[in-house]
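Why do we care about 3D structure at all? Because function follows from shape, and shape follows, mostly, from sequence. That is the central idea of this module. The next example makes it concrete: a single protein chain, its amino acid sequence, and then its structure expressed as tokens.
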Amino acid sequence: MREAVVLLSGGLDSSTLLHELLADGYDTVALSVFYGQRHAWELKAADAIARAADVPQVKVDLGAALRPVFADSNSSQVGGQTSVPEGHYAEDNMAITVVPNRNLLLLAVAGAFAASRGAAVIAYAAHAGDHAQYPDCRPEFISSCAKTLHLATGVVLYAPFQALTKAEIVQRGNSLRVPFGLTWSCYTEGPIHCGRCGTCVERAEAFFLAQVPDPTEYIDSDYWKTVSRAPLA
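And the structure:
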């Protein structure tokens, strides 16, 4: 059986990808990384998802090493100097949620980890909704990174969601019985989803569009409807 390393953040996308790998028969290992993110509550969700799926999980703490790297960043997600923006995920103000070069860092760590244990695949859950704000989620980045990782390690980068919407991922996860109630999306510290940040809005909107019941508790459960770009009628 081939082994796959999945970058598991604890969110909807990576949790669905984990369950898809298991359904496809991969011997799956979860890799979760702390890089100094404000929304570190997601790592508690990653722990819960890995336990529920009964897969081994390896946790890597890069926080101290990356603190000086991100010290001058204006990202709302590292450093703690910039407030988390509210509104729709696709709005221009969401650009400040970008963590510079985050995914290349994570994939480099995953590549080293996979190669060291002889895993065949690194699974990465970037999706189409990420493309507008995050350059390291776009197809051209994924294609380039896949070539580099394969040249460096021989490992295959698997990113099956890059053309899917968030709602389509929710539908797929629902069919795989992903325990969505254990997952975490919010860009704030927790322990309850704020309901107003871009990822909360995107999450609530995705469940609505997918016609799947949303198990999430939000502090503001109606805000997403006021900024949604989806037809709500």
